[in-house]
Specification:
homodimer; about 240 residues; alpha/beta; putative 2-phosphosulfolactate phosphatase; six-stranded mixed beta sheet; 10 helices; about 35% helix
Chain lengths: ~240, ~240
């Protein structure tokens, strides 16, 4: 039976990097980078290039890409898009390519690129991702992107939601971080938004007046599209 | 109001080390290093020297110390004591000094030594430690020693127990790791032993046949003695 491990912060990555080439990794940055990417695929984007730097991302404009950049929760000036999933409308993104850089999400993607498969997931494609992981069948590392290397609540809750579902599909775990994530999710799944109210990043949302993004990010299973890395590009596949 | 932060793994220490000289730190390694130290003080030890190396610890024998060393859960050969709290009986330790080295706990102590006060705590002196922290009044970092830099369940649960008590005493927090620890503890405080059953370190206990230590380590508020670092030695004070 395949095994689940959970990485609660990118700063702990070195503890889990051994044998990564035979594992699947799920990148989790639900508020908002990985939700935004999933929404972009829901709404018909062709592919997404994730880059660590703002400067590199901007060079894709000349190649016909929409360019998207977020730093500290805010859209970087001169870009077409920031990190709000609500801006990735079908009108704007259908059939287009997007180059994207975000504070935490794209860094996590780059760290994990040696893995056998790298998935990008959010509550919106929770069950579809669990199915795709199971079809693949290799051990998985649930990689919480966190906030500047700190543990965060929302990514841990999603890791718990995904791990809980995988366990019901026959997966196993002996990892305390996974047990903790599952417990946090299962005890609070009936009141996710209220539970996240005190989380540091949701407080940051209030300062930025982007609270309506929260509902979009917590919408469970609105999508059957899974997203994964292929030749340095994120592509989608509908199950 | 003083603030609480929680360090879920020593590998995240760099995120919390700024301004440490004005903070209190609580070292948490409840299975079993910090429990063992608390029991030693309950049973009348004079002071404890915690050292990172086995070799250095052994040199204290010539100075009249009892010497204690644990690696990977097992007593190192040639020492008087390992890391089982049940071996630190009044008959053996009253009025004596102990030099101790453990896999994770003493390393955490050394990392935190710049703090204004470094406490060592366990479930056995939970409330006494909360009172001592409040008397001091400075911000606190709850430092989970973990297992070889990995997150572990038992230390996180204790951090949650302590943080929950501090909040009722007027402390504040805006730290997701603290919220998570509190939630894990408050949802499972009525069944700590059963909840920890699946934790990786408790599984390790079974292999080592040291399960009876678990009850000793989970006994809440059996002691009114707080333990702290003074001139490189751990000393006790009864509240």
């Amino acid at each position: 039976m395949p095994k689940i491990e959970t990485l609660l912060s990118p700063a702990l990555f070195h503890l889990h990097s051994e044998g990564l080439e035979d594992k699947q990794v799920v990148i989790i940055d639900v508020l908002r980078a990985t939700t935004t990417v999933v929404v972009a695929f829901e709404n018909g984007v062709d592919h997404v290039v994730a880059s660590a730097s703002v400067k590199d991302t901007l060079t894709y404009r000349d190649k016909g890409y929409l360019v998207a950049a977020e730093r500290n929760g805010i859209m970087v000036e001169g870009f077409d898009l920031g990190n709000s999933p609500q801006d990735y409308t079908p009108e704007l993104v259908t059939g287009r390519n997007i180059a994207l850089t975000t504070t935490n999400g794209t860094r996590a993607l780059n760290m994990a690129e040696e893995a056998e498969t790298v998935w990008v997931a959010s509550f919106r494609n929770l069950s579809a991702t669990a199915e795709a992981l199971t079809q693949n069948g290799r051990d998985v590392l649930l990689f919480c992107a966190g906030w500047k290397d700190r543990f965060n609540m929302e990514d841990t809750l999603f890791a718990g939601a995904l791990a809980e579902q995988l366990l019901t599909m026959g997966w196993t775990t002996d990892d305390d971080a996974t047990f903790a994530a599952i417990d946090l999710y299962s005890q609070n799944s009936h009141r996710l938004e209220a539970f996240l109210e005190k989380a540091s990043h949701v407080q940051r949302f209030k300062t930025l007046h982007i609270e309506s993004d929260l509902q979009v990010c917590l919408k469970i299973d609105s999508s059957r599209t899974v997203v994964y890395l292929q030749d340095d590009k994120l592509v989608g596949k509908t199950l």
